[in-house]
Amino acid sequence: MSKKLVDVMGDLNEDEVIAEVKALKEQNVPALEIIADLQAGMGIVGKRFEEREYFLSELIMSAEIFNEASKLIGGDAGSGAASKYGTFVMGTIYDDIHDIGKNIVTTVMSSNGFNVIDLGVDVPTAKYIEAIKQYKPKVIGISCLLTTAFDNIKECIATLEKEGLRRDIKVLIGGGPVDEATCKYVGADHVCRNAQETVEYSKKYMGV
Predict the structure, then answer these.
(1) Nearest Cα residue to 111 out of 58, 49, 64
(2) 68 and 15 both lie in a single domain
(3) What is the pLDDT of residues 169-202, one digit of tens each?
(4) Given 22, 44, 72, which residue is the final one in a domain?
(5) Where are the beta strands (DSSP E) in 9-165?
(6) pTM of the entire structure?
(7) What sign for the dihedral angle of Cα 170, 175, 180, 184?
């Protein structure tokens, strides 16, 4: 373990992160060990975010630094090889094409050790069903920024129930207009107000 890499990642010092990754690579340190150190640094970022020392801009920056560093070592932050915590399926519900919030969540989840399957935007229920059957995630995320699409989330979750896919899956929802009342209305398990909350809830549910 490189304490220096963990610390500079936590401090969001991009130049030092890149320099240390290059140095470790030259020392033939295995890629997965370097990624593990980067993910430990992301853990520090998450803690500082929760303590309001860091904000959304720093959270996004940390994911960007992580991705740049993982490219250097030929690693893919979202690959199964780099995954520590299992698979997370995410998309924006059908009739909604907003992707900024979704993209932030998928990037931060990937850089925190999850194997993320990004279904994109305007995702129909059938596509969620297909992904759940194929990847067998324990947690899925549904993004929505349009109140007019709340019924679509409700329909999607109800269909998962009918298909017998709901029992072992936690459904997280998020987006500007989404709140606890929405969560109850659509039948989801939890409202995530930001990417870090998605990380922490998913880790907790997966027993990490």
Answers:
(1) 64
(2) yes
(3) 999 999 989 999 999 999 999 999 888 899 999 9
(4) 72
(5) 87-92, 115-118, 139-143
(6) 0.77
(7) negative
Q: Is 150 left (phi over 0), alpha (psi -120 to 50) or beta?
A: alpha
Is the same domain home to 28 and 94? no
**More confident of the two residues 16 and 68:** 16
Least confidently predicted of 67-81, 131-145, 160-174? 67-81
Phi first, then psi, for residue 38 (nearest 5°) are -65, -40
- Tokens for 149, please give them: 């699409």
In a shared domain, residues 49 and 150: no
Any idea what the CATH number is for the domain that residue 53 is in? 1.10.1240.10
Same domain? 101 vs 48 = no
Instruction: For residue 144, give the CATH number of its domain.
Output: 3.40.50.280
Q: What is the pLDDT of residue 71?
A: 85
Rg (CA), the chain: 17
The pLDDT-based confidence of 85 (bands split at 50, 70, 90) is confident
Give yes or no: residues 97 and 196 share one domain.
yes
